[in-house]
Amino acid sequence: MSQRRANPHGSMLPNDEVMPYSDDETDDELDESEESEEEEQEEAPDHPPEDTARAPGEFKIGWKVKVNDRAYHQLPEFQKKVFLCIKKSRYSGNAIKTYKYNAFTFLPLNLYEQFKRVANIYFLALLILQIIPEISTLPWYTTLIPLVIVLGITAIKDLVDDLARHRMDKEVNNRKCDVLLDGRFKETKWMDIQVGDIVRIKKNEFIPADILLLSSSNPNSLCYVETAELDGETNLKFRMGLRATDERLQEENQLARFDALIECEEPNNRLDKFTGMMLWDDERYPLELDNMLLRGCKVRNTDYSHGVVIFAGADTKIMRNGGKTRFKRTKIDELMNYMVYTIFALLVLVAAGLAVGHTFWYEQIGSKAWYLNDGKGYNASYRGFLSFWGYIIVLNTMVPISLYVSVEVIRLGQSKFINWDLQMYYAEKDTAAKARTTTLNEQLGQIQYIFSDKTGTLTQNIMQFKKCTIAGRSYGAARPVDWGWNNLADKKFDFVDHLLVELIKSKKDKDTLEFFKLLSLCHTVMVEKNDGELVYQAASPDEGALVTAARNFGYVFLSRTQDTITISEMGHEKTYEMLGLLDFNSDRKRMSIILKFPDGRIRLYCKGADTVIYERLSPNSRHRDTTQTALDLFANETLRTLCLCYKDISISEFEAWSRKHKEAQVVMVNREEALDRVYEEIEKDLMLIGATAIEDKLQEGVPETISKLAKANIKIWVLTGDKKETAENIGYSCSLLTDDMQIHYGEDVNTKLRTRQEKRRNEPPSSFRPGKKKPAELFFPGSGKNALIITGGWLYLTQCRLVFVPQIDFVDMACECEAVICCRVTPKQKANVVSLVKKYKKAVTLSIGDGANDVNMIKTADIGVGISGQEGMQAVMSSDYAFAQFRYLQRLLLVHGRWSYIRMCKFLRFFFFKNFAFTLIHFWYSFFSGYSSQVAYEDWFITLYNLAYSSLPVLLVGLLDQDVNDRLSLKFPKLYLPGQQGLLFNYKKFFISLFHGIFVSLTLFFIPYGAFLQTMGQDGEAPSDYQSFAVVTASSLIFTVNLQISLDTSYWTFVSCFAVLGSIAIYFGVMFDIHSAGIHVIFPSVFTFTGAASNALRQPYLWLTIILTVGISLLPVVCIQFLHKTIWPSVGDKMQLEEEEKKTKPSAFQRGRASRRSAYAFSHTPGYANLISSGQSIRRRTTTHGGNQDGRPPARRRAENI
């Protein structure tokens, strides 16, 4: 089947219905730059070379395994160099290691990792400087204590995490399994298993390595496995041993004599593919994935299985798929790092300026003052050099180490709030929301693009057989069916057309009987009996729904072996011999089964997508047009469709085909392609029977969620493997696409992109100034809404350079649209689409999915969300956040994300402000101390300021503050916009905090300085000493920063009030203790401010000085906040005003209190109650008093129009 078609212009365009081949490797980054793409575009030939198409990847056949021969794998030819002359076997042992540290490496390795953070190196350098006596201006413990606390907390957290990994590795490596050693099975630990060993796995045991299945307790060596831990699928799958090993390797002595040589592909991460060959007794046997039991699976419904280890430990497919989890950082993290660099640069400049000042001061004044002579004989320049390092130490608190600890505490608390949110708890599955990371919460408030899977994410992934068309007639639109006539029916199955049942029971319509016979025979479903009931285990929900439908209509699948399949046809049991099973894959998009009927006839049954089935129909096939019409109707109803057909095969034709099939099965290179070619030969000239239509319902609340997120200016892209029609109809049903949108398809995309390229090529180079990029024109000019629907085939050809399209042009076009749907895309393409938007738009992205095929996309996005759905937990295990329903996404973003962003921004702004105000007092003090690096505070105040005196109130703001409640956050999605635009924390806000800190530090220093110039105490003494000045300045600072955070707090709780008052109380309590005579006697050299606090604070005028200082510091803030509330209110302020008006305003309608019952109250159709009671439909009278004289709408109306 061709994947390309030529358009009229001669370029190669993709087939929209083709699912491009893709392996599971993920491109971490798209390396091609925009410039190189443009150069390639200019140099591109009119027709791309044919050899640029990427062929499906094949792995090297170079892995040899000798069964029951451990020494064979230690031969020199299987050795590989690991370091210099040291070699080891290329075959890994079966022990796994996921931990990072051991007892010897923990301390050095953990410290090494922590000191890779620039801030920790900075504080270590400060500590070293403080040890040097010549430049030390602060005691070493002022930096050591905070640094040890930070390093200790982080080390303990890392140790706890690594101990958990140690316990997990130990538990896995010490699991027991029976291994054939010295001719008999012995219980052995997993870690001691080696390649080539024969193992016996019992029922409900995990598989210890990647194993070739030899035999089992079931007939034909069938083995049922559960792969949930491997790929997230919860359905049981079956694996099957070769006929030769099944017949000859059942007993222990037979297994002990088994000496086959197995050649296969090298270890790789492909979960869906295995190619190999077994040489045994001069016979060659082909090996494929169905013969393999992969590590991580669990054996079910099979008493025991025997197998030989092919890949062990790190070579197994599950370990190869582990990979390294991408380290994700938020935009605020990146911005904060740049701001720390900015602060450090300012610190160096300030210290350098003060050092120069000290040099001139010492030349002109210091060297001439005999009482300042220290006897060291240093010249002015060297003293200036020492002063520079002294000020680096003194002013280091502009970059406080406690900032990083506080940020981590806030993020941890915000993650707990997400976990505890009962409104994101799904009672049906007893599943709560889970924040699986603590580092990305504020990023949830800045999302610009959401990339969503469809099946299981937007839909429920619970399939139900709804409609069908048989021989041109459609069924599924009449009254419900009673299944009482069928004892084997599934009573939970619903269908709403009794005419079809009557037709089946009459046995007169051969097409109808053949239709359901095909459904009961053409599948890979496994069956087991549970308390006498048939239980189907299907590889996909679709297939399970089809077999269940056939069961209810009288064609009951009963059992299967390797060669036969047994069904009940309207109560009569029949067994069919299975001659061939041509399985489904994403390239073929169909599956077939070749059966030999009891009467000797050979027939092929096939089911698949309409696009591939119609290409293979016989010219004599009937009902093509009527079936196509029905398929279009089903697709418009967002139903998933499959076409059913058959073909009678002569014995001679089958024998000729069977020989080709056996030859293709033993091909070692490109076996998949060889088999596909053989399949193509038999799957042609098919006769159409009809088509099925299966419903995959939307999850509850999906349309409302998408609509609300769209109002928050979040663009949603749906990336799905479904066909274009189904994806488009789901887009309409979930409100992603609306009737007022202009839909653009692949053909429109190519035309617009080609026009843009030609225009760029013909544009003269001098049309704009060099060095500056010309602003790109819009692809969709005008004010209308646009949506884009493209296919994986188009993306595939673009990526492979078969269609020369600069990636940035595609991204620009797609990002102009309100919605984008990419259908028929592979897992790799999903990840690449996310990478494109991240690369060219620098946007914050979120991916959400529920299946193993969404893992790449989830890991690639800035934030990954997993839904615990029908497809297992693989997506959840790879995600940053997880919950059970898509509708919870709006609460995660609009409430928790927005709150986390606002809280973190407010925390950072205030944290920088309070440290600028605290640190810059040293700067002003230097002008009066000869620039001598003398500190303005007592040493212990500097140590405890960020740890105890000012940390708790700002920490609680970062944890609890909210401008509006959660209900208003959801009601007005536009409140989300400031986070997307980064308005609450940026360089502008940073410099505002800097200048605010400069103003407050000026006030805190110069008002007490003026008060101390000419003063007299009550006792006639003048407390104008340095220590009293330090106490007054510090006290003013503590009052100012704690009252400032009180003014900035929007949401008051008892805890917030307690934190502010408690911080002030802790300051005075600690200060009076460390200024007491008792502690000075014990530590005379450490606590030197003896009696300073009690002496200074008993003077009333000093208290007046503190009050005046604090008042002047806070007055501008109060005035600015008043102006903002009244003249320039924020969106949040308007919401609060509306709520206050709603509480005070009487309801629009007053009814009597007498209760009246009316049947109308129980009407099945909701009326206009919400519209009327909200007052939105009531015309307000024009008022002549109390405001609104300027004709502006009332506050409530203004809020609603935001």
From TrEMBL:
Cofactor list: Mg(2+)
Task: Identify the stretch(es) annotated as Disordered.
Answer: 1-55, 752-775, 1167-1202
The species this protein belongs to is Fundulus heteroclitus (Killifish)
Where in the numbering of this chain does the P-type ATPase C-terminal domain appear? 876-1130
| Main location, first listed in the record | membrane
- Binding site residues for ATP: 453-455, 543, 584, 607, 640, 720-722, 824, 830, 853-854
- PROSITE patterns membership: ATPASE_E1_E2 (PS00154)
Please report the stretch or stretches of sequence annotated as the P-type ATPase A domain.
173-234
- Stretches with biased composition (Basic and acidic residues): 44-53
Q: How does it sit in the membrane?
A: Multi-pass membrane protein
- Specify whether Nucleotide-binding is a keyword of the entry: yes
What's the family?
Answer: Belongs to the cation transport ATPase (P-type) (TC 3.A.3) family. Type IV subfamily.
Q: Where is the active site?
A: 453 (4-aspartylphosphate intermediate)
Instruction: Give the first-level EC class, as a single word.
Output: translocase
Q: What is this protein called?
A: Phospholipid-transporting ATPase
